[in-house]
Amino acid sequence: MRRLAPPDDSSRGLGIGRRGAFFPLASALLGLGMLLSPPGVSLGQSPERTPVVTTPHFAFYSHFDTNLNDALIAAGAARRGGKPELFQSGSEKSCFDRLPPSGRAAWDGAVNYYKEIISPTGSNDRQRYLLRVQLAGFEEDLKDAGARQFVEIARHLRAAAAPAYMACRWAAQDEKNRRWIERLTPQLAAHEQRIAPRLEELYHQRWSLLPIPLDVVETVDWSGANAILRDPAGGHLLISNSYEGLAALEVAFHEASHLLMGRNAPLRQALETAAGAADWRLPADLWHVVLFYTTGEAVRRILEDDGRPEYTPMVYAIFDRGAWPGYRKALESTWRPYVHGERPLSDAAAGLIGALRNPEQPQPDRGHPKTPGQ
User: Which of 45, 64, 140, 299 is the most exposed place for a label (fewest CB within 10 A)?
Assistant: First the structure.
């Protein structure tokens, strides 16, 4: 789960003008995409978006073009790595093989373009960010001609790939997305009105634009979820339907918490102030570890109060994989009291920095948070 901040307006690194063996086909597909584009859709404009479900804090979408983009990124990455990709096995392959040659070639050409230009980039890179804001309907964030040209090329290539995706994948994907939303909705009905205000208290900041748009897709990337922040406020969440059970509830609020944890947000400022007072440089990943722990422990505590004591926050699975060594014990000893309302923010931040500056040997607890008094 990662946050994507708005990049600068430079058009460098967008892949525009790069040459390769796929470009003659890509140029032809671009023309085909223009023919297939719905009439009246202007430069960089995404088709109309209608939420499946809206709650006080989230608007959930199962959006065709966003899911197509996700599928092409995954297929491009698989093709680049020589791994199995969409339409190469099972009933989807049978469907794909029955398509006209033009439809199969259009899909393959779009995957080749994504393989070379989009899929090799990371979710934090400018290419992905530009596609994301266009798909989410934030056209005003495409602030220079190079950015608009880039998203327009990708949009028309998706239009060329759309018939194959519509014929052989979309019905199943849309159903899967909607089932995920349907399973999460009762959890939100039960817990949203307690979790959301508690997070605003912990982060000392309120969500400024509600509901937050949240698109459900198959993959996202290796993390399965991320968020973008918009300037000056708001954002967009993208989450894989692979999250199950109460983890889906936590991941929705985890990604929403990114909107409360921008560079100048109160909680980050508290950490930076404490580090400055200790003459200690903050690790680059500390803010994200703290976000994981804060939201996860807040969700766990509320679920426990509501009679669901079995839930373990996602951060413990990350700790058990060996990531973020040295943070676990410091968070449990200094930051958990803050999340539980037993310690003020400034004191907790100073305590956390002190514990990280003078680490003790971490004691594994097999992925379960210790109860108070242990």
Answer: 140
Q: What is d(CA 47, CA 271) in angstroms, rounded to the nearest whole number?
A: 41
Between CA 30 and CA 293 the distance in angstroms is 45
Q: With CA atoms as reference, report the closest residue to 63 among 183, 186, 158.
A: 158
Domain region containing 164 = 20-51+59-179
Q: Is residue 319 part of a domain?
A: yes
Chain length of the chain: 374
44 plus 95 within the same structural domain = yes
Residues 164 and 283 in one domain: no
DSSP β-ladder status, 212-217 and 225-229:
unpaired
Give the pLDDT confidence of 116-167 residue by residue, as tens digits.
999 999 888 999 999 999 999 999 999 999 999 999 999 999 999 999 999 9
Interatomic CA distance for residues 135 and 47, integer angstroms: 8
Closest to 190 (Cα-Cα) out of 78, 305, 95: 305
Q: Residue type at 340? A: H
Say what the pTM is: 0.87
